[in-house]
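Now read the record:
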Amino acid sequence: MRIAVVNNFFPPRPGGSSHLSAALAERYAAAGHEVLVLTAAYRDAPAEEERDGYRVVRLPAMPMPKLGLSIDFDMAFALARPGNLRRVSRLLAEFRPDVIHQHGQFFDLSWISGRYARRHQVPVLLSIHTRLESPDPKYAALFRLLDRFLVRPLIRRFRPRYVIMDELAAHYCAQRYGATTADFEYIPVAVEPSRFDGAPELDVRARHGIGDGPLIVSLGHVIPLRDRLALVEALPTVLAKHPGTKVMVIGRVYYDAYARRAAELGVSDAVISTGVVPSADVPAYFAAADVVAHDLQGGGFGTASLEAMASGRATIGTVTETNFPAVRLRNWENFVLVRPNDPADLADAVIRLLDEPEEREWIAKRQRDLVYSHFTLDVVTRQHLAAFDRMVGEKK
């Protein structure tokens, strides 16, 4: 097959969807398929390159202006540059894709490639990485309006099938976009466990002057849907039992309410904010952790958390036991589940894990086994390729 992979986010830009789309593109190519990646320009990355057996074209794009709001994100839009609409159409016409795999429903490269797909009757698989939701009522209302009057009308024109990574995505796509189970491909998010094999060269504890005390690592950009407030509010209880505990927040901070709350609670000295770290250093940060807690507001369980599980670290989540299709989670057997936005429940779980190192290691092993069984890139790539085969077959 000829597979076009489309994502405004792509390495070297950091982010879960960025690295997942690159990893899938590499595996599509390794399986013998022709692959073209269309993405937005990012810093000094080359406009075109051949990598890992496929071609990458980065289109000129306009960064979203920073307005000083909590929803400011590092995004760039290709439609802001004249000529990109024609250039994408020309690139796809030259490549003649059998299927288009889009990442991100609200990115303009998805809309542009969807326009081509509609005109040329090319099947589209759309991965929903981020739901347009917010705990802030003002932004929640704005996002609903954007979904209803902009995103939904645009994507319904090219009628994609949706990659459903968890039960929250299924509900979201049904409610916001009118999708049905007939439109769904149940494929979980994927990680590459092998990158966590071996001992890391970087000594994270030495770099940050932490010492041997308990360390809770929380990896990922800080946004309202991953605000770390519950983690900070759990800290006083955790510190009362384990005084040397540190929380390390890793990622770009778009929403700093957690830092202000830490100051109010007098626990700022126990919170370390590193900013963005290179992807190659992530295994070292997980290796330094005793516990990982990232997705704490009931908004899903993403790549960073699955990578923490793959690294062999006890990882806390706030999803339900039925969160992943065909994968059963069992609390305190192969997972650690707490209630969303519940600092007391989170503190109890952290203390239990720190109090019982043998149980912590046992849970971590079961979580790692779960990733190897259901969430590896090899498993998920096969599921994507099977979906492409069905979609191309239906077209014929």
